[in-house]
Design brief:
The protein has 504 residues and is an alpha+beta fold.
Length: 504
């Protein structure tokens, strides 16, 4: 028999979906003291590797959240990526020169990412409610009334200030609101294999092979072996031809994987012990606005892209970190609701750029015209032979280049770089930004006791109490909780005016 339960305490947020993005969202809101619940219709966490890499920018945000150490312990760092044609290296992209405390990609199966983030969420006293499906909701100007179905309870009705859809590419919330998921399905089929590889050169690095038959990508997974000659668990992804509508491809076999490795790779690499073999297609889609009243969208519910570059999960987790501090300020510091409109204004262009760049990489890798193949390889080798181009590629892959140049939250700018909307370079030896239990802005400036103390008295709940070293002499930088510049000025009143407008 169905049971209706109306909780006595109104929720601040209900999060639908407990993948990495939903877990990050729930954890950040719980860290800031909001009353949240998170539901997922799956009975257990995924046991698949799925999204494999956590990039530098996401790890910086996980430093602030307090989850990076556990993630690092569960994965392995990868310091370079290689673009190859057979055994020839066309370009070698290294990450150890990027300006971050995490100059690498963290190779970690999604199953482990979810485990770590789930345990992190539990440290705040919040547990994922599994086998719990959001079946309907209705929003008003003040709340969202949600109906959740649980097999052992029936239907539960609850009220939340906000509903956050982190429920994936087939989002129930998005469908219920009839929000278009605009884009296309690529006319190509792909193979995925998690296997043990023996004889792979530089097994701790990423390898992308450009071949006339289609691309081949190989990524290390999990902890490294003690010797480079031992077999390593690896992810193999390969294009397997044009999609044939109405004709499902048979599941790949280990022999299929070996044939592709022999044909497109360096040679001498042997695959064994398959853990996961599957076919998949690529969709490139996004919604235009990440907000619909009191409903917000994050991760795959808002955007899906080619796996090229491993940007999808990272983009989603960064969605969560962007939205969480804003919700917390509206809920806990009475900032105006209009602050929340900046979420879509900032994050939608980021996803648009990810779609553009990953789509371009996929098109480049799947080129088949014989007349263009040699030109492509020569051009890639030539362009990425210049250090500035390699550095730019490293910044793009690690997502350190993500910025908000057109953000409505960007304030006054008359100081030198970094300008408003730009991510601040993390200073060596400094504590992570925004590592406490409430979202706080940071000030990077030379000591000025009078001006600084006046700001702390006026905005005690919005500012870190300690000044950080300025990026240049005579400049003052107000930096948002998520590490992007809000104001870059030479005058202290500009900081006061910005904060006063924020809370007005």
């Amino acid at each position: 028999m169905a049971t209706t339960i109306v909780p006595a305490t109104k929720l601040d947020a209900l999060i639908a979906g407990a993948g990495p993005v939903g877990l990050a969202m729930a954890s950040e809101l719980a860290r800031y003291g909001l009353n949240v619940r998170i539901v997922d219709k799956a009975p257990v966490r995924t046991d698949k590797s799925k999204a494999l890499v956590i990039w530098s920018r996401t790890l910086e945000l996980m430093d602030s959240a307090g989850a990076s150490a556990a993630l690092l312990a569960a994965g392995r760092t990868c310091n370079a990526a290689n673009l190859m044609s057979g055994a020839k290296i066309l370009a070698h992209i290294v990450f150890d020169g990027v300006s971050s405390p995490h100059p690498y990609g963290l190779m970690i199966p999604q199953s482990e990412t979810e485990r770590v983030l789930d345990e992190h969420l539990q440290s705040f006293g919040v547990h994922v409610e599994r086998s719990a499906e959001l079946v309907s909701f209705h929003q008003t100007d003040t709340a969202v009334t949600c109906t959740v179905h649980k097999p052992d309870v029936g239907e539960e009705t609850l009220e939340a200030s906000w509903l956050i859809a982190c429920d994936g590419a087939h989002s129930t919330v998005r469908h219920a609101l009839n929000i278009p998921f605009e884009g296309e399905t690529l006319a190509s089929d792909w193979m995925l294999a998690d296997v043990q590889l023996h004889g792979m050169p530089n097994p701790g690095e990423m390898h992308i092979f450009l071949h006339e038959s289609g691309p081949l990508a190989i990524f290390p997974i999990g902890q490294p072996s003690s010797q480079a000659t031992e077999s390593q668990r690896s992810r193999v992804i390969a294009g397997v031809g044009a999609h044939r509508p109405g004709q499902a491809r048979p599941e790949p076999t280990l022999a299929d994987v070996q044939n592709i490795l022999d044909q497109r790779g360096t040679g001498g690499v042997t695959a064994s012990d398959p853990i996961w073999l599957a076919n998949f297609g690529i969709n490139e889609r996004k919604i235009s606005n990440y907000r619909s009243g009191r409903v917000f969208f994050a991760g795959d519910a808002a955007h899906i892209h080619s796996p090229a570059g491993g940007q999808g999960m990272n983009t989603g987790i960064q969605d969560a970190c962007n939205l969480a501090w804003k919700l917390a300020l509206v809920r806990m510091r009475n900032c105006p609701d209009s602050l929340l409109d900046s979420y879509s204004a900032e994050r939608s262009p980021v996803a648009r750029q990810v779609l553009k760049s990953t789509g371009a990489l996929t098109s480049l890798a799947t080129m088949h015209n014989p007349a263009l193949l040699a030109f492509r390889n020569t051009t890639v080798s030539l362009v990425l032979g210049f250090p500035p181009a390699r550095h730019a590629m490293a910044d793009q892959l690690t997502e350190l280049s993500v910025s908000y140049p057109e953000s409505p939250l960007n304030g006054y700018a008359d100081a030198a770089q970094p300008k408003p909307g730009t991510r601040v370079p993390i200073q060596g030896g400094e504590a992570p930004l925004n590592a406490g239990s409430s979202p706080r802005f940071a000030l990077f400036a030379e000591p000025n006791d009078i001006e600084h103390h006046e700001l702390l008295r006026a905005f005690p709940d919005l500012l870190e109490p300690t000044l950080r070293n300025p990026f240049h002499a005579d400049g003052i930088w107000l930096v948002r909780p998520d590490g992007y510049v809000a104001v870059a000025s030479t005058k202290w009143p500009d900081i006061r005016n910005y904060l006063a407008r924020l809370v007005s």
